[in-house]
Amino acid sequence: MNPPVPAVMAELAGLLMKNAMPDVPQPERASDLSLSAMLLVVAGEIWDRQAHILVEENRAVRGLLGEVGEDSDLHIPALQAENNRLRAALIVAQAAAEVAGDLARQEDIWAELVAATERRKLSMAPV
Amino acid sequence: MAHPLEPRLAAYIAGKIPAASSVAVTGLERISGGASRETYRFVLSWTEGGESRERRLILRRDPPASLIDTERRIEFEAYRAFAGSAVPVPEMLWLEEADDALDHPFFVAEEICGFEASPQLLLSGAFDAVLPALAGRKWTILGEIARTDPAAAGLTRWMAGPAPGACWRRELDHWEALIDKDAAEPLPVTRAAIRWLRANPPPPAQKLSVVHGDYRTGNFLFDKAGAIHGILDWEMSHLGDPLEDLGWSLQPVWTFGRPGQAGGLCRPDEAVATWELASGLKADPAALHWWILFSCVKGQGIWVGSAAAFNRGGNRAPIMIYPAWWLINAQDRAMLQVMGRL
After folding, report:
1. Is beta strand B220-222 parallel, antiparallel or unpaired with respect to B51-61?
2. How near does any CA of chain A get to the CA of B64, in Å?
3. Which of A111, B217, B221, B311 meets the CB 3.0–4.6 Å disulfide criterion with B263?
């Protein structure tokens, strides 16, 4: 998830402190606080599921790329870095399958891309 | 408590109205949203010819960093080009491209008062009875934009016009380059869409049109009867294929959670038929499909740009986080839908 949750939470904390001051114009306060509230709801949803999503996705993409191994460091930045590496490799693999006309390979990759997109769907997504 | 920009803005405007005295700016307040420009409303009062006068105005100022980088001159001239036409726009007053007066470039425009822009309000159920009429107006006005002669409107002076066969490539190159620059994570679905777009280009544009660039529910002012009183947010306007605007208006992210409803308002075929009637142009289904998928890529370019502006520290406002968190996955889902994968 980008921007990363910790950076967003730090920013929102600063924003809440700023809006606790009496001299903030009322419309700006209303805008800041309502947006912050919505972002906190999303942050809660991400916090609950992000590690699970990344581990599951990394496992699936390793399978497609013929790699072995598991995630041993379960901190989000470590999982995300591995996810970035694997998804970058998946882009290359999909493009290669298109050039080669390998339809079965393309369908396997598409199936994972659809599954990954569904995994990441937010409960209040507009699409 | 007075906003600190008020005396500075008053001093600037006083310099623009030599016949005025006692120029004052009051009630300056930021309007929600506006991730690419800071937008404020305010009341200007002054004395001229012995008479006290007052006018409600809008200030649009560049932020320190934006989710899209555009020239305010282009936006200003686009608004001016449609003044008094069948496309309702607010009157533009002053453009300032230097940083001296208010730290960043800005322009001042008329405020069209008494109307709403919020898609959430429009689609809350309270306006359901007028949505068909509003949809008709929305795509009729878009057809009027497509019908407009860019040269006659004075816009070819400010906007470069590509050859009809080059419109798609210019736009796709532009947005792919932004994604290359800004994406913080690999985007396999978006990259697959870009490859498909390059392998299956659309036919040349049937004419070179003014493209609004962000024509969607949320960027116009409406009333309770379903009338539209102002088309806003011309900051991405340019010359190009008229199907680009139609495709953007039909891309799934702008259904606002109403699947199968163009802009959350009506069936896509109804929107297309209205646009064709107003523009006098044809929307070839295959070409329109290309532009809808392109619009998904463009949307992704904007959302990852928003995250990048936050991550680089140029703009840490919460409005920069919202599109990145809410829409990057939604845009992937939209792409999969348009490609028939979801």
Report:
1. unpaired
2. 16
3. B217
Put simply, the chain A residues between 50 and 89 with a CB less than 8 A from any chain B CB are 80, 83-84, 87-88
Instruction: Indicate the pLDDT class of residue B316, thresholds 50, 70 and 90.
Output: confident
Instruction: Give the angle subtended at the CA of B109 by the CAs of B24 and B265, to the nearest 5°.
Output: 135
* Residue bearing tokens 């994604």: B179
Q: Which ipTM did the prediction report?
A: 0.94
Contact A117 B328 (CB under 8 A): no
Write out chain B residues lying below 8 Å of A98, CB-based.
195
Which is higher by pLDDT, B275 or B72?
A: B275
- Nearest one of B138, B144, B146 to B270, comparing CA atoms: B138
Q: Would you give the distance in Å from CA B327 to the centre of its chain?
A: 17
Per-residue pLDDT tens over the stretch B88-141: 999 999 999 899 999 999 999 999 999 999 999 999 999 999 999 999 999 999
- Alpha-helical segments (H) within chain B: 5-16, 72-81, 119-122, 131-147, 167-182, 188-199, 242-250, 268-279, 285-311, 318-338
Which residues neighbour B262 within 8 Å (Cβ) at sequence distance 6 or greater? B135, B249, B250, B254, B255, B268, B270, B271
For B116-122, the CB contacts below 8 A with 24+ separation are: B116/B221, B116/B222, B116/B223, B117/B218, B117/B219, B117/B220, B117/B221, B117/B222, B117/B232, B118/B218, B119/B217, B119/B218, B119/B256, B119/B264, B120/B256, B122/B217, B122/B222, B122/B264
- Chain A residue numbers with beta carbons less than 8 Å from the beta carbon of B330 are 121-122, 125-127
By the 8 A CB rule, do A85 and A56 touch? no
From the list B33, B24, B28, B25, the residue with the least C-alpha distance to B63 is B33
The per-residue pLDDT for range A25-68, each reduced to its tens digit, is: 777 788 889 889 999 999 999 999 999 999 999 999 999 999 99
Using a pLDDT cut of 70, give the percent of chain B over it. 96
Q: What is the largest CA-CA distance in chain A?
A: 64
CA distances in angstroms from B241 to A110, B90, B152, B249, listed in the order given? 31, 25, 17, 14
Phi and psi angles of residue B269, each rounded to the nearest 5 degrees, phi first: -65, -30
CA distance A65 to chain B (A): 14
Using the 8-state DSSP alphabet, how is residue B253 labeled? G
For residue B216, the chain A residues in CB contact (below 8 A) are: none
Q: Which residues contact B269 (CB under 8 A, 6 or more apart)?
A: none
